[in-house]
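Recall the central idea of this unit: under ordinary conditions, the amino acid sequence of a chain determines the structure it adopts. In this exercise we apply that idea directly, starting from the sequence alone.
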Amino acid sequence: MKPNTPAERLYNGIIKENPTFVLMLGMCPTLAITTSATNGIGMGLTTTVILAASNLMISLLRNFIPDRVRMPAFIVVVASFVTVVQLLLQGFIPSLYDSLGIYIPLIVVNCIILGRAEAYASKNKPIASLFDGIGMGLGFTLSITCIGAVRELIGAGSLFGHQILPLADAAAGKAGYEPITIFILAPGAFFVLAGLTALQNKFKAPSATNGSVAPSKLACGGNCLTCSGSACQANHAALEEIRRKKEEEALAAKKAAAEKAAAAKKAAAEKAAAEKTAEYPDFGNRTCTVFYYGR
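Accordingly, the structure predicted from this sequence is:
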């Protein structure tokens, strides 16, 4: 699949670099709001809209944002779209707005959005950045919807608010499903995510926890868990050094190829001259003799 095409960006976000199951990013909303499939799909689609819009805007402004203030600029762009989406949810879908609560404004600092802005949108063209945002958003939506569906089904016996498993009624003597309510409480999120991660590792599916993700080239090693933000400048210095070394290697390779071509051309000329001399060994002497008697 050709790089940076819309189809490749969608596949990359949904499957290859799924932000939840592969990169393990955005764990805060993943664990907090996935008490039901409805909440999962609501948060996922909200994040998708903001991710696509912010990626597009940041890509359009990438040549105008100074490098020193790029992160504050990214946050301002993301916060603007979050405010718009928050007001739209509050006005048109108040039930979803109440369910998601504080996690809507916290989208501003979601590491998926800021990560794609820094790693992709600020370095690529608008259309590719737009589809990168859509792909990552849909991957995030799919992931947290699956987690929410599992938690809702086990913890309440329902799916998208509809009762799937008939509940037991002890007072009426009716047998049925006994919900495991811990799955719709805070610990349930960890149980489900741990189970899905264990399955990934068991079947060797790509994941940040089984060593299948390429090692980071950042100076800090890419360990976001212990990051205090102080390695930012060092990271950029390391990446700049890598870029400079690649340019030097490419220049050296080009120079070596030119020298090799010149040497081959010189060797061919010498070989041709030697063959001509071997074919006419007294060519030079005869020329001199003819010239002498001619005078």
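The first strand starts at residue 158 and ends at 159.
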